[in-house]
Write a structure and sequence with these properties.
Layout (H helix, E strand, L loop, with lengths): L1 H24 L6 H15 L3 H21 L5 H9 L1
Length: 85
């Protein structure tokens, strides 16, 4: 049970980094988003105290918000204006 959870957790974390760097390469988000997520995950692996875990939570929250804002669907009005051109 623990091994399957560890594999699932590792896959989720790697998938999140792949998504963040792909969004950066596509020009949807700034470089700080994948860097913040990478820093949060590295700090999570190397720390065990409560204070660094709070920083990990803050970094991951900031990175996920930046990622969500970058890949949200565009507004219909701007899409219609692009098609009209």
């Amino acid at each position: 049970m623990v091994a399957s959870f560890a594999v699932w957790n590792l896959g989720w974390m790697i998938g999140l980094l792949v998504l963040a760097f792909a969004a950066w390469r596509a020009g949807l988000v700034s470089l700080w988003v994948p860097l913040v997520l990478t820093g949060g995950q590295v700090l999570d692996f190397v720390s065990s105290a409560v204070a660094p875990k709070l920083v990990v939570s803050a970094l991951m929250t900031a990175g996920l918000i930046g990622l969500a804002l970058g890949i949200r669907p565009r507004r219909v009005a701007s899409a219609a204006a692009t098609v009209a051109k």
